[in-house]
User: Which sequence fits this backbone?
């Protein structure tokens, strides 16, 4: 509940005014605080970490999801989040300076509940990032992942899930659009779901990428109500389905409310499942407004939903 609503319900005059002149009350979806994936404002955090966190909280966000560590210790990050009035319960393991086990220990010290990865790509992908990193080559490896690669990714997910459970954490897999490539009559995403231990591996479903690939996130929420525990709330401009992660045919990011996803349906379906948290994430580049302006628009969209 926001500070504004707490003040409203605790003030007798405000209640009386509401009873006399009823207006719709705003509430966050699922009655849970709106979160932000910090990747969205990574450039701003790199320039002014503490100041950007304060701006995030001032907009109304109460939860954040870690995308990179900014060369800070878990203690420093936890203190910065706390001082800004933010809670971090999920961290993406995109840190090549630490082993997965080391990052999980880092996440536990941070106070996170979830640790998350994407793709768990084959070694050739990481080779593209060694020496002088070649991001385009890395993307190409991801786009060429085979069904066997995804089966190995499922094995890696199970192992990461076991390591997380040993530390009292929960592992989750985060999807993009590439996982909806079909191999015969099955998608890579369905293969990952069927090939992983339901207790060790939960899913952070990125609704934007699911929709961009031409699939309905609502159907997955209905089909896997216990597996999907985290959501990324994202929008792309309307267009034909795309399995491209980069390049001219890749989906074009935009602010919430300007894409083709009916998030009322998404949150209605999520009510019947076990979604614990959701995070706004907007992909760069920000072409029509700044990142901070975009996340304010995104927050208001959800807060009015």
Assistant:
């Amino acid at each position: 509940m926001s500070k504004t609503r707490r003040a409203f319900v605790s003030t007798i005059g405000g209640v009386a005014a509401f009873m006399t002149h009823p207006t719709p009350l705003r509430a966050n979806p699922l009655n849970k605080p709106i979160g932000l994936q910090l990747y969205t404002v990574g450039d701003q955090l790199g320039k002014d970490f503490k100041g950007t966190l304060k701006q995030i909280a001032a907009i109304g966000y109460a939860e954040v999801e870690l995308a990179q560590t900014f060369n800070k210790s878990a203690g420093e990050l936890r203190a910065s989040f706390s001082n800004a009035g933010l809670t971090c319960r999920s961290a993406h393991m995109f840190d090549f300076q630490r082993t997965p086990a080391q990052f999980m220990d880092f996440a536990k010290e941070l106070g996170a509940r979830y640790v998350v990865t994407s793709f768990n790509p084959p070694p050739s992908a990481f080779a593209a990032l060694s020496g002088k990193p070649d991001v385009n080559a890395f993307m190409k490896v991801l786009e060429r992942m085979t069904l066997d690669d995804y089966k190995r990714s499922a094995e890696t997910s199970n192992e990461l899930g076991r390591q997380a459970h040993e530390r009292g954490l929960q592992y989750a897999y985060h999807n993009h659009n590439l996982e909806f490539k079909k191999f015969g009559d099955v998608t890579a995403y369905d293969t990952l779901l069927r090939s992983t231990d339901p207790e060790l591996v939960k899913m952070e479903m990125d609704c934007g990428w699911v929709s961009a690939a031409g699939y309905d996130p609502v159907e997955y929420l209905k089909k896997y109500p216990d597996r999907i525990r985290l959501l990324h709330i994202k929008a792309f401009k309307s267009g034909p389905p795309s399995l491209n992660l980069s390049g001219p045919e890749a989906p074009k990011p935009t602010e919430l409310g300007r894409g083709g996803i009916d998030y009322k349906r998404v949150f209605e379906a999520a009510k019947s499942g076990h979604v614990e948290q959701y995070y706004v994430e907007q992909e760069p580049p920000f072409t029509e407004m700044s990142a901070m302006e975009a996340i304010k628009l995104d927050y208001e969209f959800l807060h009015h939903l």
Residues 147-166 form the longest helix (20 residues). Residues 1-26 form one domain. The CA atoms of residues 23 and 34 lie 22 Å apart.
